[in-house]
Amino acid sequence: MGNTAEVQAKFDELKGVIYEMKQKPGPLMPVMQKAQEIFGSLPFEVQKFIAEEMNIPMTDVYGVATFYSQFALEPKGKHVIGVCMGTACYVKKAEGILNQLEEELQAEPGTTTPDGLFTLEATRCLGCCGLAPVIMIDDQVYGRLKPEDISGILGLYKNKQ
């Protein structure tokens, strides 16, 4: 999580946020959002800290963290790749696209590449059924894909470094 002084400063900042928000109704979501903003994700240590400081069960914090897709238990990569696995994309062989991404990135869905550049996610419908199969990298949609298209698309993001 970084050096000790840096981590302690982040926990101190979070403690201030919790103190401020605890007085308001429904404080858990805003506290967790701020914690993710501070730490980049919500690892176990951060969830435990929130539970203790807010005097609520750890299961409540974990339940919210895992239910809402806006929360990440691990840091996300610089670029998030969502592979649509909705019905239209699945029928149009999205699994081949996902397999190609896994092979080229050496990452499975739900994980981040060791260099921190990409996070791979298998998602529900992206609402681009007419372009099936599709992937979304950050806010950019790529459609009517074939596995051989993946290398060139990833190259666009690798070359931005």
UniProtKB/TrEMBL annotation:
<keyword id="KW-0479">Metal-binding</keyword>
<dbReference type="InterPro" id="IPR028431">
    <property type="entry name" value="NADP_DH_HndA-like"/>
</dbReference>
<dbReference type="InterPro" id="IPR041921">
    <property type="entry name" value="NuoE_N"/>
</dbReference>
<keyword id="KW-0408">Iron</keyword>
<keyword id="KW-0001">2Fe-2S</keyword>
<dbReference type="GO" id="GO:0003677">
    <property type="term" value="F:DNA binding"/>
</dbReference>
<comment type="similarity">
    <text>Belongs to the complex I 24 kDa subunit family.</text>
</comment>
<dbReference type="GO" id="GO:0051537">
    <property type="term" value="F:2 iron, 2 sulfur cluster binding"/>
</dbReference>
<keyword id="KW-0560">Oxidoreductase</keyword>
<keyword id="KW-0411">Iron-sulfur</keyword>
<feature type="binding site">
    <location>
        <position position="125"/>
    </location>
    <ligand>
        <name>[2Fe-2S] cluster</name>
    </ligand>
</feature>
<dbReference type="GO" id="GO:0046872">
    <property type="term" value="F:metal ion binding"/>
</dbReference>
<keyword id="KW-0371">Homeobox</keyword>
<dbReference type="GO" id="GO:0047985">
    <property type="term" value="F:hydrogen dehydrogenase activity"/>
</dbReference>
<dbReference type="Pfam" id="PF01257">
    <property type="entry name" value="2Fe-2S_thioredx"/>
</dbReference>
<feature type="binding site">
    <location>
        <position position="84"/>
    </location>
    <ligand>
        <name>[2Fe-2S] cluster</name>
    </ligand>
</feature>
<protein>
    <submittedName>
        <fullName>NAD-reducing hydrogenase subunit HoxE</fullName>
        <ecNumber>1.12.1.2</ecNumber>
    </submittedName>
</protein>
<dbReference type="InterPro" id="IPR002023">
    <property type="entry name" value="NuoE-like"/>
</dbReference>
<feature type="binding site">
    <location>
        <position position="129"/>
    </location>
    <ligand>
        <name>[2Fe-2S] cluster</name>
    </ligand>
</feature>
<dbReference type="InterPro" id="IPR042128">
    <property type="entry name" value="NuoE_dom"/>
</dbReference>
<dbReference type="InterPro" id="IPR036249">
    <property type="entry name" value="Thioredoxin-like_sf"/>
</dbReference>
<feature type="binding site">
    <location>
        <position position="89"/>
    </location>
    <ligand>
        <name>[2Fe-2S] cluster</name>
    </ligand>
</feature>
